[in-house]
Amino acid sequence: MKKVFILFLIFTLTAISVIYAQNKPLQATIGKLAGKVEVQLPGKDWRAAKEGELLPKGTMISTGFKSSAVLTVNNSTILVKPVTRMKLEDIVQTQSGTSTQVYLSTGKLSVEVTPQQNQTTDFTVSSPTATASVRGTGFDFDGVVLVVHHGVVELKNPSGQLRQVSQKQVSFISSEGTVTAPAFVDSTQASGIVVEAAQQQQ
Questions:
Q1: Using CA atoms, how far apart are residues 162 and 141, in angstroms rounded to an integer?
Q2: Do residues 84 and 65 lie in contact, with contact meaning Cβ atoms separated by under 8 Å?
Q3: Which of 39, 93, 132, 184 is disulfide-compatible with 24, CB 3.0–4.6 A?
Q4: Stretch 157-164: mean pLDDT, rounded?
Q5: Taking Cα atoms as reference points, which of 75, 59, 61 lies closest to residue 134?
């Protein structure tokens, strides 16, 4: 009977360790800060952010005018641009790689996702109007307009319409809520599309 109990205990502990290893929680690290940047950890009040501090999932980040913050999550870098509010919804280490989910309430993010050998990197940024999902790429996203610098990003609206946006392409959510066809543009043209998209949303 004692041997059976010991075997059961070993089996249980092994199962728990495997489950934990498959979904190990990670934290984001605050790098360089500029201007007024505040964080709100889960269940806490808003306070000034500090360079080098660790942020668990559920943390909110807010930047003021002429302010920015750089966050690193494993092999991904997030530049939180001025007048932006975002939430770290989920950050986990899985058996196959890492998974990060960010919710962008307002503002704009620049994201750089560097793939790791033999590891997958899932990175998703959601907003009230669209969701951008990537695996190893760099892009700018303000919740409406997506500009891809390299790699491929999936842009999806709430109704499920999805388009693949590739390197040096721009796509955005129209005033009707549809995902526009990706278009190749240079940096000057991209600025014009951002303005056009913003005007359509008004």
A1: 16
A2: no
A3: 93
A4: 93
A5: 75
